[in-house]
Amino acid sequence: MESNSVSSEQCPCLERNQSVKLTRPKERVGMEAEGQRRISGRDICWSVVFIVAWNIIILLYQKLWFRPQRIRSVLLQQGINGPKPFFPFGNTSDMQQINQTPHISLEALDEWTSCIFPHFHSWKQSYGPLFLYATGTKQNLYVEIPELIKSIGMHKSLDLGRPSYLTKTLKPLLGNGIIRSNGLNWAFQRNLLAPEFFQSKIKNWMDIMEESTTTIIKKWENHIAESGGGTVELEIDGDIKALTADVISKACFGSTYAQGNLIFAKLAAMQKALSKPSILFGFVNLRFLPTKENKELWKLKQEVETMILKMIKDREAVNQKSSTYGNQKDLLQIILDGAASATTDTSGKGVLGPGYNINQLILDMCKNIYFAASESTALAITWTLFLLALYPEWQQRVRSEIMETYCNGLPHSFHDMDKLRKLKALTMVIQESLRLYGPAVTNSREVFTETKLGKHVLPRGIIMWFFMPSLHRDPDNWGPHAKEFRPERFADGVSGACKYPQAYIPFGLGSRICIGQNFALLQIKEALCLLLSNFSFSVSPNYCHCPVNIMLLTPKYGMRLLVSKVHRTGL
Known about the structure:
Radius of gyration: 33 Å
Mean pLDDT: 83
Largest sheet: 5 strands, mixed
Helix content: 55-70%
Structural class: alpha+beta
CATH class: Mainly Alpha
Distance between the termini: 156 Å
Number of domains: 1
GO molecular function: heme binding; iron ion binding; monooxygenase activity; oxidoreductase activity, acting on paired donors, with incorporation or reduction of molecular oxygen
Membrane topology: Single-pass membrane protein
Low-confidence stretches: 1-23
Number of helices: 24
Shape: globular
Organism: Psophocarpus tetragonolobus (Winged bean)
Subcellular location: Membrane
Strand order of the largest sheet: 1-2-8-5-3
CATH architecture: Orthogonal Bundle
GO cellular component, one term: membrane
């Protein structure tokens, strides 16, 4: 019987067709599954991108909009107002547009105060002594109310500190040293350094102060002799900086000014580069970009740290060979000893914890001491001599007091601290000079935790600013003659000079008051005693009165005075 089936041999394509029929559904299933896998992978990828982007948007919304608005709403509810900010730059455009040409005339002696930060002056006239403004997303509170400043000064918690953005911006100059650090780092440095500036210890540096001042006296005497023994015009600010630099180098670091000369010069260059309002007030911080200016700043930072590090290594090498410095215990040795135990201290006074860069801590503390203890003291002496040159009756009164107290026994008479305390006229002049021409132009605090100060509740993140030239000229606190040079207002001390003594803050306020205050005042007194007992000063006709802010109050065109020799026998 003939079969109807067809064998595979007879039709070889049948096998192929059957194979196709059998395998094609499997391939289709595999392709569909692979397609599903590809689609799922794309979906997952896009989902991740969406989630990340959404989180970034939320974070940006929180930082750029929600937090600033919350801070503003808290203060607005308390009646604190200010110029309207514009997102995302705040009031920076207004700040840059409000300009005022600085005065350079002695006839307009006090007008310079409205030229340094003219937006403060303008907004104060519109909104009063307490107002709110924004620089980018940062919310700032201008404070010129003595009662509030008193509350801030009495607040001892670490909840108030230096603005964190300034710590980053000024890092090349100050690192994380005591001037700009916060929290436990600041507490550790203060506990380590503050005792070294107690009156009982700094009096041991008086011989160094006298020696450095005598060097300047001899230099000026040579200039006078070369001019024929009469009056000579000198630009004194450079020599005064040399004087204070020499003192801080010898007293605190055991080196001479020749060794510290380059350090001060490079710190001054860094100070000038970082003193622009756009940097200090946090408009835009582009310090990470490799611009020509930033590269120069990085280079200066590296050079300063290399020189200080060499000084530290030289001291460590000497310590290994002898115990001379270990017994001497100058400030550098105190820093080295304290830093060595910084991570193991169990006293609870500012333990830094493991992993902290001790070498960087030492460098930062040294830079802060070089900058703060030298530059600000030099400017205080310079401005005081300017005011005494401008008011010769007070100059003669102070000189007569010095001569009567020391009975022509200068120099080598300053170890008697009682005599220094008797110089009442000199003390009043210094206090008045610090009021009108204190080196510090601004002071600031950031609120790290919501804090109640006086009748105000200040939200976390607000940055408070104090403008000293205006604060120290407030007629409500200092009386109708607040802008005038009247040292007699301090006849009964600071408490008798004004209504709110807590608003007199040439050295800062509260727990963060300058630890070198006693050191600076002692050096100012001793330098002025020696200079005034040897020279008479008057303002040069070539002097241009134009104080500017280069992180500190500085005479823009130098301090030119006419200097002549004082003959003590005629007194």
